[in-house]
Amino acid sequence: MDVRAELTEFLSGATGDRIGPDEDYFAKGLVNSLFALELVTFVERRFGLAVEVEDLDLDHFRTINRLTDFVRMKTAA
Amino acid sequence: MELDPAEAALWDLSGGFPVHVVKQLASHDWLGGTPLALGEFCAEVGAVCSSLRGLVTVQAMVSAALSRWGTAAQRSHWLPRLAAGEEIAGFAATEANAGTDLSAVATTIEAGPDGLTVSGEKRWVTCGGIATLLLVLGVLDGKPATVLVETDRAAVHLDPVQDQLGMRAAHIAHVRLDQVRVPRENLVAPPGFGLSHVVATALDHGRFTVAWGCVGMAEACLRDAAEHATTRLQAGIPLSDHQLVRSMLARAAVDTDNARLSCIAAAQSRLDGAPNAIARTVMAKYTASRAAAAVSADAVQILGSAGIAPDSRAGRFYRDAKVMQIIEGADQVSELHIADHVLREHRRRT
């Protein structure tokens, strides 16, 4: 499974923009107020993992590359 | 569930439901079941008393936020007490200058060596007058953060709101927190996630339960209107023999049914953990609050003078339904979110 490609497709669909791998979509204001939670739900369901309060670190979520690393770390564990 | 609409009318007039009803609600498995079961429960309570459904909503909102983003210690301490009705929750996010845009909250949470200090003025807290536990949105080190504040702590001031348009029995209060000290372990999720995750989770549950409450309101209004239309005679003819009255009943039935179907679809998406569950829930809340407003207005019209009497359920719901179109995302804000969702799905397909 190509985690990065799947996240890129989801993020690009959500923002209406081609999101670069290191682009901070939160800082750029590309998403609405419901998005953060939708992203958590998508990642949990698509990759079969649970995002817990201990995982809440903006560094995990704000770019495609960071989120890819987070998903790989969680699914390897 | 034994709830009497006549009693609810008295609560509306006297400014509050009695606190012992909370234990009565909690004797049902009100917070622990499937989304559909929670929804049906809200419809059942909402059909009798919107204000009491408001209590279910807030209790479910705070429980959901803690269940999702609380630590193991927070979950094991608070969730059973909330489910048992031993603790009554309040959700303190709105401020004078922060409504739809909650990122504008001015409440401060300061971290010191021996805990946190919370200061701010919160408005329109449902159940604020009887709450024992508040989930408060503030700003810590410049980041949105959420903190639990027990209302028996010093410097928590509750100021009941009276005679507002609707939800008159919901113990709505403004809350002033004047340098309230709470332990560090009352912080819910790390600073930076208070709004986007904790409050967002609570509001998502709020929209879901409000939506179902509105289904109950619309269904009750439709029943009351049909009952009156068949029993009220004028010039020897029941109102239901008039085509114009039948037309109103038909439109009310379609609105009510659509609201229920939209809520069932949202419940299924939530059960599935689908990413579109949040958008589906916004759509359900939008559909159902508009249905409650339209059906209650027509029910009052059909009921005539009985609809504007102080003990009229339809009249009470007519006032409450307007509130439903404003709280947990005003209709116009919901439309923006729904349109976002439509455009996103369109991009995904093309």
Description:
- The complex is a heterodimer of chains A (77) and B (350).
- Chain A is an all-alpha fold and 77 residues long.
- Chain A has helices at residues 3-15, 35-47, 58-61, 64-76.
- Chain A has one domain (3-76): Orthogonal Bundle (Non-ribosomal Peptide Synthetase Peptidyl Carrier Protein, Chain A).
- In chain A, 27% of the residues are buried.
- Chain B has 350 residues and is an alpha+beta fold.
- Chain B folds into three domains: 5-83, Butyryl-Coa Dehydrogenase, subunit A, domain 1 (Orthogonal Bundle), CATH 1.10.540; 89-189, Beta Barrel (Butyryl-CoA Dehydrogenase, subunit A, domain 2); 196-344, Butyryl-CoA Dehydrogenase, subunit A, domain 3, CATH 1.20.140.
- In chain B, helix 4 runs antiparallel to helix 5 (72-83) and helix 8 (277-303) packs antiparallel against helix 9 (313-324).
- Chain B is globular.
- Chain B starts with a helix and ends with a helix.
- The chains are: A mainly alpha (77), B alpha+beta (350).
- Chains A and B meet through helix 1 and helix 2 of A and helix 6, helix 8 and helix 10 of B.
